[in-house]
Amino acid sequence: MSRFAKRIETMDGEVRKLKVLTESLVNAGIISFAGGAPGKEAYPFDQLREIADEVLRPGYLGYESLKYGSAIGMPELREQIRDVLLAPRGLKAELGEIMVTAGGIQPMNLLSQLFIDPGDCILVEKPSFVHTSMIYKMFGARLVPCEMDDDGLVMEDVEAKIKEYSPKFIYTVPTFQNPTGVTMSLERRKKLAGLAAQYDVIVVEDDPYREIRYSGETLPYIKSFDTSGNVVLANSFSKIFSPGARLGYIVADPAIIDKLCNIKLGTDTCTNTLAQCLAAEFFRRGYYPEHLRRLCELYRSRRDAMLRAIDASFPEGTRHTLPDGGYYTWVELPACLNASAMKGEIAEKLNICYGDGSIFYSEGTEPGSGTNCMRLNFSGPDEETIDTYIRRLGAFFCEKMEAIK
Asked: Which pLDDT does position 139 carry in this prediction?
């Protein structure tokens, strides 16, 4: 057998990490707080059944929904992105600045193809989303982690590392960050856009959770403060429509969009046209506002159930984030507890899995980073399941604490 490409080895560590999370999504035999999928009640089945019946009629959009499409995406869906998702949030964009992608992960792949040569540096958050880290490693990038606090990326550290490493781009999930649930402050959003212009560096703003807000004030996109064309917004329909539809989009300077379209032609030709038609009609018919209200109501209740259960049952000294939206809370156990080492025992004895905090740390971080941390997902399980199994998990950790004493 021929030897595999070197990039397969360089991404191997991140692949193993990611499989730990994704395999829990399809394992019906375990209570999973590890994944990041919408709840089963979150899908607009009735509306999509109605839309699909009409779209697939030859006299309506039947032909358009099944033929090849353009690399940039159907204008009908890009119009809905512009008018329903971007403009009401204060971001004005022309159709030529919007590109439809095959899910919210493909933008990272396309942007890596466009910007990254082996050995190039990408600044990432500490901790950061492991799936995108896998992609960046596949293209031979060096990942340099930047400090975070309760207001997101620490801009002084970001600027210092821009000067030290001359990165090709900076990757951030600014709203309800994956994995921590933290949201970047308004001032830091402005500052990051300013750094993009000042140092002529690309900022990749990955914002798939921003619509799923339960409390607090909606903040502008970083892209809203872009004066140089160096901020690229990537987003997804997975959390607000359907992950199986595999739809996402990029908002960027037309020169960047043009190059990305060329790359997409050589990658998969076009994004699924049937999925684009269904999504465009869903938004055009005005179903989205009520659908979003229902999503936020559903997940708010589940978030609250999880935070109550953690506060009531986890050991003294446990800390967790208080997300205003999104899918996750980040839990930091007392330092003497190693959540990474205990995950196998917990899966066997309690039938529970969670996001091992250590997998979200890239190279360049201190050894053992995140071993006492967990990413807990609350979007999938219902309130009763959350309360029952989070309390069991808390009791397990309390027993371990007592044994250590």
From this structure: 94
The token pair that represents 41 in the structure block? 């009640």
List, for residues 100-135, the tens digit of each pLDDT value. Answer: 999 999 999 999 999 999 999 999 999 999 999 999
Distance CA 116, CA 141 (A): 7
Q: Mapping DSSP to helix (H, G, I), strand (E, B) and coil, where does residue 206 land?
A: strand
Greatest alpha-carbon span in the chain: 73
- Integer angstrom CA distances of residue 360 from 140, 185, 340: 18, 22, 12
Q: Which CATH architecture has domain 6-42+290-404?
A: Alpha-Beta Complex (3.90)
Report pLDDT digits (tens) over 179-224: 999 999 999 999 999 999 999 999 999 999 999 999 999 999 999 9
Tell how strand 373-377 and strand 352-356 pair up: antiparallel
Cis geometry, peptide bond prior to residue 88 (ω within 30 degrees of 0): no
User: Contact at 8 Å (CB) between 136 and 5?
Assistant: no
Token pair of 42, please? 């979150």
| Residue 181 Rama label (left phi>0; alpha psi -120 to 50; beta) | left
Residue type at position 392: R
Domain 45-284 listed as CATH 3.40.640.10 = yes
